[in-house]
Write a structure and sequence with these properties.
The chain has about 325 residues and is of the alpha/beta class. The protein is about 20% helix and about 25% strand. It has helices at about 5-10, 45, 80-95, 295-330, and strands at about 1-5, 15, 20-25, 25, 35-40, 55-60, 70-75, 110, 115, 120, 125-130, 135, 140, 145, 150, 155-160, 165, 170, 180, 185-190, 195, 200-205, 210, 215-220, 225, 230, 235, 240, 245-250, 255, 260, 265, 270, 275-280, 285-290, 295. A hairpin with a 7-residue loop joins strand 18 and strand 19. It is globular. The chain starts with a strand and ends with a helix. InterPro entries: Hexapep, LpxD, Trimer_LpxA-like_sf. This is UDP-3-O-(3-hydroxymyristoyl)glucosamine N-acyltransferase. Its EC number is 2.3.1.191. It comes from Vibrio pomeroyi.
Length: about 325
Amino acid sequence: MLTVSKVAQILGGTVDGDLSAPISRISSVAQATEECAAIVLSKKDEKKLSKTNASVIIGPEAIRLAPSKTKIILNKLDVDKLNDLLRYYRVHKYQLFDQENTSLKADVYIGKFCSIGENCHLGPGVKIMNGVTIGNNVAINANTVIKEGTVIGNNVTIDSNNSIGNFSFEYMAGKSSRYERVESVGRVVIEDYAELGCNNTIDRGTLGDTIIGAGTKIDNQVQIGHDCQLGRSCLIVSQVGLAGHTIFGNGVIAQGQVGTAGNLSIGDNSIIKAKSGVSRSFPANSDLFGYPAKDSKSYFKNLAVLNSLTKERSSKVDKEHAVNKSLFQRLFNK
């Protein structure tokens, strides 16, 4: 088990608090519970410090104001040292050094330390890695891969060829590379009665969890980025792409080929019409369309004005052409 002292040693930090305090889980500032150590990755995280429940906070001098009992203060967050910590944590958390197929079905792989409920169906080619938790009455169809630490609730249906729990697409500037990937230690959590179609990819959170809310339905060929949170009863249509840290409230509908820029939120019961590109947050009950997406009524009103101007311009050009043609005919008696 990790301790504050061990983490401080790996990261090169100074401890303000209990050196011997145990750390059972690493998490994000926003999602941390009392047993967690939360890591500050950005200025955005610093703004959430006053509300965090983490017992241990890791970050710059600003964390001294956090209510947490113990702080590990860093002069600079070194991505190489951070990855050393996160890699050590992930390997030991899910005991990735101890892997073996525990399945009784020849065409299904189930890793060790998993919990699978009653009345579950696992299709041929399904792979479930270490430390996965699956509830009752879950159907996972052919060739789907569920990666370590994923949590799946009751009465969930997952169709073929999904990849769930992939590495997050989170990068920091490193010593040897402009883009150094940050190790992902968060999870994917799929709540009760959710449904996933075919060929979807869902990335795990970098530090926190990527969450698919209860009763949410996801079509085929959808990409859900790291640390996204979809509320209850959302509807996500084919070829939607959600960048990291996109948050949907309850009952949000994203129609086909919608894209989000990430680090934004969409309020409850909003609709995003097909092919829209969302670049900022919107409140509840929004009706969005276009690129960049805006209120649908405003978009169509602007479009009507533009069409009107185009028609006026076209009419003016036609009149000028008629005048020039008449002049030509008079000059040359044609």
